[in-house]
Amino acid sequence: MLEVSNVSRAFGSLQALTDVSFEVRPGRLTGFVGGNGAGKTTAMRIIMGVLSADSGQVFYDGQPIGRQIDATFGYMPEERGLYPKMPVREQLIFFAQLHGLDQTKAGRNADRLLEQLGLTERAKDAVEKLSLGNQQRAQIAAALVHDPAALILDEPFSGLDPLAVDTVMTVMKEFAASGTPILFSSHQLDVVERITDDLIVIAGGQIKAAGATAALQSQHAGSRYRLGLPAGHSWEWVSQWDGITEARQVEDGAGSGETASGITVLFDATPDAAQAVLRQALTLGPVEVFERVIPPLSQVFREVVA
pLDDT of 59-91, one tens digit each? Predict the structure, then answer.
């Protein structure tokens, strides 16, 4: 497990991090989100030893991180860090050997990642000849090529089209499945929501929320429910029920709130009132949908940093 413990860092009068603590657990994808200047990159650089902390410490498997442990980590900085005139495959092998892999293992790992990331046909091309999206894929491959003990990725999805995002997500999930702790930052909250197991929210250099992504969304779910009623029945009675503060019919993709299978109603209610509405709905016929509405990650983020 990777643990950041009570880390603070200032740049002159600017306090970039204040008493920052969080964990990145093995085999889990941990999203690190925050606005520009929130402290994400500074924290990642401290983990990697690129910057020092004014106070606090970083641990890996209970041991303070030193240069030897740092060398086993994979790191992708937000800025480009590859040699522009060097061929992609040759460069991956070079980075793998810097981390101690022999020529055979380095070549095998490079070829596997080139295939997984859709770069096999560009293996002999210089990095500067690649599109920005393919340069990003090559940068990710360089962070992964030595089979890192932990993975730190700063904005790995930047500049990628939707298909490339899916490709990179698949590779990250495979590494996580092998037990690797992965911390990545991103401004693309829809992508973060799709991939993360855990979430860390930072603002103003302080951790505002941390935990399992689903649990954080559930905590901010509020009192809104979604109910599917049988076709042909009225829904107005829901708004008149005791304990209901608001109810409305919602439209489907075709622009109508009623389909062949029924209608959908959103309503705000106390838990007891919601259960009473469900019991009444069951007297009208089968209820295919009854659920508490879970907010998107964008809403959770806004509420946490407000």
Answer: 999 989 877 777 799 999 988 789 999 999 999
Which pLDDT tens digit goes with each residue over 20-45? 999 999 999 999 999 999 999 999 99
Relative to beta strand 29-33, strand 198-203 is parallel
Task: Tell me the sheet residues that pair with 55.
Answer: 8
* E strand map for 127-205: 151-154, 182-185, 198-203
Q: Six-digit token pair at 32?
A: 């690190």
Residue 74's DSSP bridge partners are 151
Q: Domain residues of the chain, as ranges? A: 2-214, 220-305
Which architecture characterizes domain 220-305 according to CATH?
Answer: 2-Layer Sandwich (3.30)
Question: What distances in angstroms separate CA 4 from CA 53, 56, 117, 139, 160, one per listed residue?
Answer: 11, 8, 30, 25, 29
| Residue 256 DSSP symbol | -
pTM of the model: 0.85
Segments in the chain below pLDDT 50: 253-260
| Contact criterion met (CB below 8 Å) for 74 and 143 | yes
C-alpha distances in Å from residue 41, one per residue of 117, 208, 267 = 24, 16, 41
Q: In the CATH scheme, what is the code of domain 2-214? A: 3.40.50.300
Instruction: Give the chain's end-to-end CA distance (angstroms, integer).
Output: 30
